[in-house]
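Fold Annotation — chain and its backbone
Encoding — discrete vocabulary of local shapes
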Amino acid sequence: MRAVVLGIVAFGAMEPLTAMTHRFVMHRFGLVWHRSHHRRGHRGFERNDLFPLCFAGVVCLALWLGFHDPALTDLVPLAAGVTLYGAAYAVVHDVYIHHRLRWFGGRRLPVLERLAAAHDVHHRLGGAPYGMLLPVVPRRHRAPAVASRQRVAAVPRP
């Protein structure tokens, strides 16, 4: 039961941690890599893809330590929760929003359209929201988010 709770806590903690990393790392000194993501046309590997590779390396290290040191076994469920969050993020962001895997096609899921609209606001304005699964759209940007959602709903997906 402890392992399940730790995994859930890790998953839940990742949204604010991801938003802070996005804002304070990717949009500051990490912009050298992240800028590639804000350009139009996401085809193949882009420099921004180095971020999840680095994060995966940290998770792999945590798993290795958790499996090899009895005093660090809690790292295993924590790393599992982080991995599940990373998978959810990748599906929502890369597959659904940016269509980086074409097999998803033109399917629309209303629950994900809100996330797509918030992410569109981030791309157009270059600022908040920085989160992905629970984005907090600033009040002054909510009207553009609603307009974006309506525009997205009116355009057929490729």
The chain has a mean pLDDT of 82. Residues 2-26 form the longest helix (25 residues).
